[in-house]
């Protein structure tokens, strides 16, 4: 009976995953190459709007190892003014920031006891300061573009060109850049994070572009100030640990839809430590759970289409599906080993090897598919190629990455159940330069 229940759970979870993955692959394989101009910044305007003014917000807490490099790279774009918000760092972050001499750099500081709250508070704090500048200097809100970049990030060289092409049209409001990890991989875990963002999540975002359900990331989001202030308010970011998707939901409920940039991207640092990786992903999962508070408004909304609601439902249900699926896989594996141990013991060695090899190949199917697209993406953008050894083990890592993520799901549900909502910051460790 128990095995039957877990089998049903596993089959439902597998169906949801396969359906979503297949739809994403179809959009990636057929729609995108045939509709290049649909994506943000790809279609060049007749004239670039020279009055656009860009402010890039960079939240900073104990980022001494990376913050100077990030700011320097952002200031290399002449269009950008950079607002760094130091959230009461205890390391040398402020000292590193102050070594940079630029009139386009604004350093804001938060102090305890008002610091060390949610990331949304930091971003709203920066937006208050930004609005004061815009009002004082009489810059039109319609011409003011606000971006959010992580403290370890770097924009691709063509980022400003794509942003200008997108925001030069007055009808545009919000866009999210593609995300990629820095290509200086020290271990396989970093490669897995790169394929997850650069190719797998990219497929999902392409599909969401057509269904008007593109989700913001915490890194590489840009929006026009006027519609955000008008429809959402002076403090658009909330207190969910997944502040980016919370803002996405707020925007969609107000008929503001996120566009997606496919041909430029933002780099960020991939984690090398499984422990840090699990902590980071647990925060993301818990942030997803935080967004459940919007579910009644989503269900009752007359603004959202059925397709958009389904897209949001899928995102919000993922932690629950993953949790049930992982428990089902573990339970089924144990039951199978118990009931089949005698059969395996009596099975000829050759037959056992063939059977286990067949199961392994089947389990690697999606890893091979995603690995193929990742290899193509690296070639397309002239990114450094992987070594042969890395390519060979890539399908295995992709297919079994869920084993690591299982621990992050357990951690997230534990913290969520006991209302532990403190911010679990990602530790970037040593400099990426």
Fraction in beta strands: 5-15%
The proportion of residues forming helix, as a percent range, comes to 55-70%
N-to-C series of helices and strands: HEHEHEHEEHEHEHHEHHHHHHH
The end-to-end distance, rounded to whole angstroms, is 56 Å
Gyration radius (Cα, Å) is: 23 Å
Q: Specify the biggest β-sheet.
A: 8 strands, mixed
Structural class: alpha/beta
Main-sheet strand order equals 3-2-1-4-7-6-8-5
Uncertain stretches of 5 or more adjacent residues: none
**Overall shape:** globular
Report mean pLDDT, rounded to a whole number.
87
Q: Would you report the number of β strands?
A: 8
How many helices? The count is 15
Search tags:
433 residues, alpha/beta, single chain
Description of the structure:
- With 433 residues, this protein is an alpha/beta fold.
- It is 55% helix and 12% strand.
- Helix 3 (93-98) links the parallel strand 2 (80-87) and strand 3 (105-110).
- The longest helix has 41 residues, at 306-346.
- It starts with a helix and ends in a 16-residue tail after the last helix.
- The mean pLDDT is 87.
